[in-house]
Amino acid sequence: MITKTTEPLLNDKGKVIGTQVEYRLFGILLMKKVLYKPEKYGIEFYDDYFTLI
Fold first, then answer.
1. What are residue 2's DSSP bridge partners?
2. Containing H/E element for 9?
3. What is the rounded CA–CA span in Å between residue 28 and residue 32?
4. Phi, psi of 40 (to 5 degrees)
5. Who contacts 39 (Cβ-Cβ below 8 Å, separation ≥6)?
6. pLDDT tens across 16-38, in order?
7. What is the DSSP letter of 14?
8. Rounded to an integer, what distance in angstroms lies between the CA atom of residue 38 and that of residue 17?
9. What is the sign, positive or negative, of the torsion defined by CA atoms of 14, 17, 23, 28?
10. Total-model pTM
11. φ and ψ of 44, to 5 deg
């Protein structure tokens, strides 16, 4: 059975700066990925930034 666990990543002030996602198969870690928000790098307003999909 595959399970997905999502945990928030917090900075020292208690703000969420990203998420950590783990995929496990019968308790064995298959994949782990960390997704950071722009707040981790000190960017507070990112309305003017272009995003490519």
1. 25
2. strand 2-10
3. 11
4. -65, -35
5. 11, 15, 16, 17
6. 889 999 999 999 999 999 998 87
7. S
8. 7
9. negative
10. 0.68
11. -95, -40
Sign of CA dihedral 16, 18, 19, 20: negative
- Cβ–Cβ < 8 Å for 22, 31: yes
Of 32, 28, 6, nearest to 19 (Cα)? 6
DSSP bridge pairs for 35: 19
Confidence of residue 41 (pLDDT cuts 50, 70, 90): confident
Is the Cβ–Cβ distance between 10 and 3 less than 8 Å?
A: no
CB 17 within 8 A of CB 10: yes
Domain map (residue ranges) of the chain:
2-41
The span from the CA of 7 to the CA of 32, in Å, is 11
